[in-house]
Amino acid sequence: MASHDAAALEQVARDVAVLAGRLIVQERPAGLGVAQTKTSLTDVVTEMDRRSERLIRDELAHRRPDDGVLGEEGTSDAGSSGITWVVDPIDGTVNYLYEIPAYAVSIAACTGDISRPEELVPVAGAVYNPVTDELFHGHRGGGAHLSIGLRQQPLSVSGTKDLGMALLGTGFGYEAAKRERQGAVLAELIGDVRDVRRIGSAALDLCSIAAGRLDVYFESGLNPWDRAAGQLLVREAGGVVRGAHQEPDKHMVIAGPAGLVEQVALRVLADG
Q: pTM score, two decimals?
């Protein structure tokens, strides 16, 4: 069916992610900064999230009026086409606040029941870092790619097999108690890997796995909009994305080459 043309859905994701990415960079308020994190100006960050999501929703409504949308900042809207767009208008909001150039717009076209968001299946998606102008994109069966301007290259996960030589990516929640639990799990693993990176954007972490910039990644507490596009790209780049049992979920996401994923799973799931 035309509405399920994965390549066409990928193009929509690419176009809309770039539009939203340009918005959050070009219209970032001049007064937004670290010094304002405990004043009313922090609401500006939330407002930029909302403006980005509003743009995304408007563009999708224009281009794909029968589709549903599930977004971080707004309510879910069920469509009639069988496609639901799962969107994160700014993934890495703290990086955005601090002007650390590691935040992104993440957009994925998914199939499944919107009332069960954890079970939505991504079929196309794009993740755009507007500061570096890196656009990660792909669709099911079409591979994963990185486009920078007019240059495009295919993506492939790391060939590293030895966990001791693996660069591990992870992330932490905002709640102190959750960070303590996540830190305890990491402490059990940190001596078994080459080193650890914490980028601050789950979408970009997953893209880094797809690009082979990180060897393996795990994180708990991710929502569907944090991971939908990224998990598609990892799989299209030849990698595996799993959860505590089979599919990734809020409890756990582990991504990378199959061998490394299983080695990490043996450790973090036993401790988690």
A: 0.93
DSSP secondary structure string for all residues of 9-49: HHHHHHHHHHHHHHHHHHT--TT-SGGGTTSGGGHHHHHHH
Describe the strand order of the beta sheet including 104-111 as a list of residue ranges: 68-71, 83-91, 104-111, 121-129, 134-139, 144-148, 151-154
Do the beta carbons of residue 209 and residue 216 sit within 8 Å? yes
- Closest CA relative to residue 259, chosen from 233, 232, 229, 238: 238
Q: Are strands 151-154 and 167-170 parallel, antiparallel or unpaired?
A: unpaired
Rounded to 5 degrees, what are φ and ψ at 232? -60, -45
- What length does the chain have? 272
Using CA atoms, how far residue 213 sits from 38, 83, 156, in Å, is: 34, 31, 10
How is residue 130 written in tokens?
Answer: 């507007």
What integer pLDDT is reported at residue 31 of this predicted model? Answer: 72
Residues of the chain scoring pLDDT < 50: 1-3, 36-40, 42, 272
Contact present, 158 and 214 (Cβ < 8 Å): yes
Find the helix packing angle between 224-236 and 202-210, rounded to 10°. Answer: 0
